[in-house]
Predict the 3D structure of the following.
Amino acid sequence: MGRPIAGQSLTQDPKNPAPYETPPKFTSVHEASEYLWDFITEEEHYVPLMTGISKGVPIMKIVQVILFNEFQQGTFNPDLLLMLVEPLAFMLIALAERLDIDIEITGEDAVDEDEELFGAKVEEQKLDQMRNAVKSGNIPQGFITPEMQTELQSLPEIPSLLVNPEEEPTPEPEPVQQEAPPQPSLMAEPVEEVQ
């Protein structure tokens, strides 16, 4: 029927458990939120995340990918994963707002339905709160700590995201340089000169 056999999880090697089968790294929302903030503001993640959001990738899809990946690595358990959906979404909204990026929350913002995330419904009220935060530019208190707010102001600008494609100057073509003839290889057979 496509489902695991009863007791299948008990056949895993107990000496080599999967990361999500071990005790989680974080058990409190506050600590896990700080970890996620550090994760999304690292340059190797920050630039691709903001680029994706600027190209229309919905915030909730990014949240789902990040949280599920961290769960698989044993960072937190499924209960904490669900509690981190809203804080992570507001963190990403705050980062995108700072760069004046147009933000899409669910990908189907015109539809008045609850969003399903990890098999659980995200209430329309919470989605509306996120949409209102995007329109007003005000993130509700408690999601972004004062330390995060300070760090938010010191994050580097991403110039390529701030340039309007219509205003982007076209690059000057580089002058074509004549290539020098290739040097003979030292491993090549000697060529006899014809006189």
Q: What stands out?
A: DSSP finds eight helices and two strands in the chain. The helical segments are 29-41, 43-54, 59-72, 78-83, 85-98, 124-136, 146-154, 159-162. The chain has a mean pLDDT of 75. Residues 59-72 form the longest helix (14 residues).
